[in-house]
Amino acid sequence: MSAVTGISECIAALHAMATRVEAATPRALDQGMALFEGRARSNLSRYSHQRGTPTPSPPGQPPALISGRLRSSFQSTAPVQAGAGMWSAVVGPTTVYARIQEEGGMAGRGHRSRIPKRPYLRPAADDLLRDTALIAVFERSWGTALRI
Hints:
elongated
């Protein structure tokens, strides 16, 4: 850690810190999205059953694994700056039935089949927000960037 003397050095040091935080943020977001994806995939691995048999997962629990297509369909976008100090990134499944599994609703021919809610994303997000792992990712990234 170096000493900062004078207002101009202080301003320059603060600008340098801000630049380092901006550079560290996408890496922290990537790591945070990987944590979330891992927890969602883990939720999708909790139950399994053979194709053509009734789902063994209890109502309100994640859908049971059959082919693994939903679990393997996760994709993420690269973090992008969405304004001054704001960032945006997206991670989630891409299968056509991903949302109906999470939210439940009517599906099938003529929308005659009722699919119960089988959340796997919301519990992963809630779990991650209660845990300190996500905070630790940003503390490490930003802590390093904020050192003079």
